[in-house]
Amino acid sequence: MREKYILSIDIGTSSCKVILFNSSGSIIQTCSKEHRTFFKKNGGVEQDPDEWWTGICHAVKGVMESVSVRAGEIEVIGVDSQSSSMIPMDRAGNVLYPSMIWTDRRASEEKRWVDDNIGQETITRINGNHNDESNVALKLMWLKKNEPDIYKKADVILNAAGYLVYRLTGQFTCNISEGGLTQMFDTKNGIWSDELIRGCGLDRGKLPDILQCYETAGRLTGEAACGLGLAEGIPVTAGSMDAVACALGCGVVENGDSYITGGTVTALGICSDRPVGNDSVHVYHHIVPGTWCNMAGVDFGGGNFRWYRDQFMQGYSEAEVYDRMNSLAAAVPAGADKLLFLPTLVGQRCPQWDSTTRGMYLGITPEHTQGHFIRALMEGNAFAIREILELEKEAGAVCSQIAIAGGIARSDLWMRIFSDVLGIPLYRTECEEAAAVGNMYTAAYGVGMISSFKEVKERIAAKKIERDESNSRVYEKLYPVY
Questions:
Q1: Which residue has the higher pLDDT, 300 or 245?
Q2: Average pLDDT over residues 424-435
Q3: I want to staple 419 with a disulfide (CB 3.0 to 4.6 A). Which of 141, 187, 376, 426 is the partner?
Q4: Prediction pTM value
């Protein structure tokens, strides 16, 4: 019997990544291509969708040219992406305006208008999420007001995953996981909300059909196959936002399962069998039918570590710098001798919901060394996740253990800090590429290569992080101060 392969394509904030998996879920090859981000004086943050596509073509060819797998052996293509992108397109598939990505904050006037004229109570009742400039509805309102000709010409509004699906298949779609953060969506029932769309003065006709993440959105067109070096006709699933793909890749499939994903953003998600939106945390559909992800993140959690590296760790090679930072921090006792760090360098959504919030070191003394500052940074990230965990518990999303994946999971010290601060069992997943793994299993389920999402949970390998009770007692005293 011939081997079957799955191609996972991700549009991230900084790069496009392509990973080839075999039917057993093992990574065969990976390739990525960075893309540019453009920052505007008005708070806008944009990327070029056509540059995404160029990067994807490069990465797919890079994968396929380095393996012996034939193009015809790819069984299915799965996609996932950064969330909350807003891309206006005409019926011919032309991008009419750059993608306003999730960090775009220019729609501040629109946010105030929605607060005053629709109100958070209505948004919470229907959508469950906080009224925020990053959400698609407000970006679209900004476009209508400031670029009325473009808004009028736009036949369809897509997110990043939807754009990729279009380039692959020629079909305009939106996967259900993206619905919640559009702020135009009935999150309980999984449908567009006419009440919210009309309230924002927007056009329902510009919004594409909603598909389950694992549904086949279409098949690879001849034009796309030529650009990618693949075979025409491969099924392409509707895809998901990267956060829920990561959830599935951590084995989160049923009520109470939870996970932390640690990249630029460090986010905590808890799976539930009902949406528990109270506008303090994000809520959106999970890949697994009948479940929702209740989630919030430290918006520059892992990014703080890289910031410190770039500003204060010159003279070390890329291969040794993180080991050095971990070594310095490990030499400092738990609590960093009462040095505290607030990780809000770029503002914060949940729980502050304040884009003007900034970071802080608190309690600096002459005795504090570089190791203290690094350890306090790590601890501040963990304290912020604990705050989110408690907010989610108040909202009704409760967990008994947490899986963790992503770049921060490479640090043994940081994992012990998380375990000691959170005070509940923590398990590090074996594969760091949790989002790609979740994307792969979504696609595999969509074409019948696996019969149940519970199979995914059984396949995910993870190791428990041991907790130090004495350190936990230190953090119990410091957390209220944080």
A1: 245
A2: 92
A3: 426
A4: 0.92
